User: Which sequence fits this backbone?
């Protein structure tokens, strides 16, 4: 029984997969937050370098990965694909469960798959400093690592509740040379405005994005980097699914269902989009996003134009949203707390190509504990949502007496998230379902787009 399925270094993908040519209908335009007109590439230049802008709007199905990026990818790619034999036995299921493990990167997650190319393209474009935000800290640590590798300065605005809950993520960023500030901060107009209204604000990704975008837009040597949501980030993450397809083929398997956790979209897109391409070509495969019930963007939000940040500085995109004023609860179940979602993921959900489900954090932690006790790997709390989805699919197969092949993305390890596990094991965590009234209040402030 083969457990670990490996690819050699020379099989690292040479091209990223761009899903835009295979989308069921054209994408909605991205809107300038000031003029409420479609943005032009020049509008984005104060924030992003031109190579990333070109990738953002590209309609080419395949985009070459620079050799400088592939050389750094070799540190952890190709990542292993595992057959979860022990988890299958623990569940007593006829299902076959495979997981793609992204926790072997230096930052311990899938995020460097995009951080490395983003730092590379900024470096060759003359950028001196990156300003960015981070929620639970996986993106912040990844872009800090990437900036260190390419000789760039790095400023990270970290959501305050995570800054306090996850001190070792902050330490990782600082170890790799980044300047880390809890958000909202007194360093930007956006942060000061939030603190004036609520001095005890826990912060949110929307607020941290506002601070980072303002920082980049007001400094000529600085550009902004985002770890999810955008098309070019989903593009970079496609290496996950591309490798997984090859690895499954090596053992004569193809999934019936592909599962990724969902916060903003990069994790889910990375494992799922290459299989959505197969689905577009007639393959019978389900692709499922699992999100937290405390931040139910895809399952309880609406599909509409909204700002990407709280201060209304970022471009306006059509996406599933809970409203840019959404303030998530200070829970420990990872960084899946953004008010919106990737426009690409959102459109695929809206058109019924992919599925979305919400799960409670206690069920996710129960799944993470079962997984760690059977497979040995302690998963990141974010990844536990995908594990929950895979276990539920396997239990359904058991109930129905049917064979099923399940693939999920184990997007990182939980070695620096042990405070969350301490709270779970100490019965200090509770389930939380975001109130319908609060969602309605936030959605009342969406922008008016013709």
Assistant:
């Amino acid at each position: 029984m083969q457990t670990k399925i490996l690819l050699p270094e020379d099989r690292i993908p040479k091209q990223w997969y761009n899903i835009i040519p295979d989308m069921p209908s054209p994408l909605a335009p991205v809107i300038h937050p000031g003029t409420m007109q479609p943005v032009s590439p020049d509008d984005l230049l104060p924030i992003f370098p031109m190579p990333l802008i070109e990738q953002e709007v590209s309609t080419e199905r395949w985009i070459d990965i620079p050799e400088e990026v592939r050389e750094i990818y070799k540190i952890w790619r190709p990542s292993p694909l595992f057959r979860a034999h022990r988890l299958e036995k623990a569940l007593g299921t006829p299902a076959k469960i495979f997981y793609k493990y992204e926790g072997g990167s230096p930052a311990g997650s899938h995020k460097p798959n995009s951080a490395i190319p983003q730092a590379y393209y900024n470096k060759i474009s003359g950028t001196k400093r990156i300003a960015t935000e981070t929620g639970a800290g996986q993106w912040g640590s990844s872009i800090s690592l990437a900036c260190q590798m390419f000789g760039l300065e790095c400023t990270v605005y970290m959501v305050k509740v995570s800054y306090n809950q996850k001190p070792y993520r902050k330490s990782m960023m600082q170890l790799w040379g980044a300047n880390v500030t809890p958000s909202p901060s007194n360093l930007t107009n956006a942060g000061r405005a939030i603190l004036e209204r609520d001095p005890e604000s826990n912060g949110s990704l929307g607020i941290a994005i506002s601070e980072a975008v303002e920082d980049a837009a007001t400094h000529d040597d600085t550009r902004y980097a985002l770890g999810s949501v955008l098309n070019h980030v989903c593009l970079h993450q496609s290496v996950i699914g591309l490798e997984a397809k090859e690895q499954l083929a090596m053992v004569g398997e193809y999934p019936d269902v592909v599962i990724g956790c969902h916060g903003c979209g990069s994790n889910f897109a990375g494992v799922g989009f290459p299989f959505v391409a197969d689905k577009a070509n007639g393959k019978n495969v389900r692709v499922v996003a699992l999100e937290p019930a405390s931040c139910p963007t895809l399952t309880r939000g609406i599909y509409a134009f909204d700002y990407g940040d709280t201060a209304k500085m970022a471009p306006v995109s059509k996406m599933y949203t809970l409203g840019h004023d959404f303030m998530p609860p200070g829970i420990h179940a990872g960084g899946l707390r953004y008010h919106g979602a990737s426009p690409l993921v959102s459109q695929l959900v809206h058109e019924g190509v992919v599925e979305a489900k919400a799960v409670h954090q206690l069920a996710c932690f129960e799944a993470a504990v079962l997984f760690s006790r059977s497979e040995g790997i302690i998963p990141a709390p974010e990844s536990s949502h995908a594990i929950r989805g895979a276990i539920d699919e396997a239990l359904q197969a058991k109930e129905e007496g049917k064979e099923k092949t399940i693939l999920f993305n184990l997007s990182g390890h939980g070695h620096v998230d042990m405070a969350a596990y301490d709270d779970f094991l100490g019965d200090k965590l509770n389930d939380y379902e975001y109130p319908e009234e609060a969602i309605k209040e936030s959605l009342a402030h969406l922008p008016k787009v013709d």
User: Anything to note?
Assistant: The first helix runs from residue 41 to 44. DSSP finds 19 helices and 15 strands in the chain. The two ends are 57 Å apart (CA to CA). The mean pLDDT is 94.
